[in-house]
Amino acid sequence: MHAHISAKKQEARVAALQAEVESLEKELGAHEDAEAIVKKHIKLLHRYNEAKDAAQILIGRLATLKETTVKQIHDELDLRHSD
C-alpha cells in the first residue's frame, strides 16, 4: 500500500531538493567537475600511501640497524603509531 502524497507536498519536496542541489553546486564552485575532483583526490591518496609505505620501509631498516623495534623508532622520532 502506497501512502498518498499531495501534489503540493511533492512540489515542495522537489523545490527543496533543487535548492539543495544549487547550494551544493555553488559550494563546489562554478564549472567544477565532481568526478575530476574525486579522481584527483584518489590520485593524491595513492601518492600519500606510496610515500607512507616508503617511510615505513626506511623505519624498519633503521630499526634493524639499531637492533631495536619499529615501535621504539616511532617513539624516538615522535611519530604516531596509527595512520
Automatic annotation (TrEMBL):
The keyword Coiled coil is assigned to this record: yes
Transmembrane segments: none
Source superkingdom: Eukaryota
Protein source organism: Mycena metata
GO biological process: meiotic DNA recombinase assembly involved in reciprocal meiotic recombination; meiotic joint molecule formation
GO CC terms: Swi5-Sfr1 complex; Swi5-Swi2 complex
Annotated keywords: Coiled coil, DNA damage, DNA repair
Pfam families, sorted: Swi5 (PF07061)
Record-given protein name: DNA repair protein
Keyword DNA repair assigned: yes
Gene3D superfamilies to which the protein is assigned, alphabetical: 1.20.5.170
Similarity comment: family membership: Belongs to the SWI5/SAE3 family.
Annotated coiled-coil segments of the chain: 7-34
